[in-house]
Design goal:
This protein has 319 residues and is α/β, with parallel strands linked by helices. It is 36% helix and 16% strand. A nine-stranded mixed sheet has the order 1-4-3-2-5-8-7-9-6, sandwiched between helices. Strand 3, helix 2 and strand 4 form a beta-alpha-beta unit.
Length: 319
């Protein structure tokens, strides 16, 4: 697979606080993007407002040629920014970003999230103060301070374990020590948004579990937050389809990592029970959402993928 890379040549005015000319940035922010301009501009603006200087931004561009040219040019004077064009798929975008990243720690902000001014500094502080830390995660909030992607975060900070791995953050808050990729592997390209077989979620949790399986040090802190818009679920068939595709990723993940039939039965039973309660309350739309979640989870749990797609090849990742 071929990629083309755009590197902005930067000259910063004295006193500029963004690290645009560092040879080895401490952080690499890898942003896969497709079909969003306004949201990407918001994200990039938030990066220019960081109190820490030592990072780079990699735009993994999956748009038509020229779609982001003006935005990249506009921010090239304030950020150490590179654009890499790839085929579609979020996990694929992140793996390509990891191949090109120069930082010792990589983050994976979505193109519709944005950072408070101290996010990069806090990440640097975590990794500096916790020797051997491999992976940091936190929570995502919307502009009003409400949970934006998951309402079931764990309340206490501390190491991540398998029993609460689904309650300890999502990829917008992930910061990973890049050197572990050669042993852990990158994102599974058969999972996540744009995956070819409809398993549209689970790629970040899959990576966390592989870190746990190697006894690497992980840490979750609910006070560490990144902003992200609320996921809008309208009352359409496309929303039901999206629910099935996202839950299929979850179902596949719990089988892949051996959570077992009892855990699978528990999650299906919980979804169906909640659907029945909502139907009894005449909330038929959310009952349908719950049932579609159960159907998608079952489809993913029993799904079989070709062996060639089951993992990212180690040769494709940074050493």
């Amino acid at each position: 697979m071929s990629t083309t890379t755009f590197v902005a040549e930067l000259e910063l005015a004295p006193g500029t606080h963004i690290g645009a000319v560092q040879e080895s940035p401490y952080l690499s922010l890898i942003v896969g993007t497709l079909g969003r301009r306004r949201e990407l501009e918001r994200a990039l603006t938030s990066f220019t407002q960081q109190t820490m200087a030592d990072f780079e931004v990699l735009i993994i561009d999956q748009n038509p040629e020229g779609y982001l040219d003006d935005i990249i040019a506009r921010f090239s004077e304030a950020l150490d920014i590179r654009r890499i064009r790839t085929e579609r798929g979020l996990s694929h975008a992140r793996n390509i970003g990891l191949q090109h990243a120069r930082g010792t720690v990589a983050g994976f902000p979505d193109d519709d999230c944005w950072y408070g001014p101290d996010v990069c500094q806090r990440v640097a502080d975590y990794f500096a103060s916790m020797p051997g830390l491999t992976l940091l995660t936190g929570r995502t909030l919307d502009a009003g301070g409400r949970e934006s992607l998951s309402g079931d975060y764990r309340g206490s900070e501390g190491p991540i374990c398998r029993r609460d791995v689904f309650r300890t953050g999502n990829s917008n808050t992930f910061f990973l020590r890049r050197g572990v990729i050669s042993s852990v592997g990158g994102f599974d390209e058969g999972l996540g948004v744009g995956a070819p077989q409809g398993l549209q979620s689970g790629e970040e949790t899959d990576l966390v579990i592989r870190c746990l399986d190697q006894d690497l040090r992980t840490y979750y802190d609910p006070s560490f937050t990144v902003f992200h818009d609320q996921v809008c679920v309208d009352r359409t068939e496309s929303s039901l389809r999206r629910t099935r595709e996202y839950s299929a990723g979850f179902g596949y993940l719990i089988r892949k990592h051996g959570f077992g039939p009892l855990y699978f039965t528990y999650r299906i039973t919980r979804s169906v029970t909640r659907a029945a309660i909502q139907a009894a309350q005449f909330d038929f739309w959310n009952a349908r959402i719950r049932l579609n979640w159960a159907v998608g989870t079952a489809r993913g749990f029993f799904h079989r993928r070709p062996e060639s797609m089951a993992a990212v090849k180690e040769d494709d990742l940074p050493q």
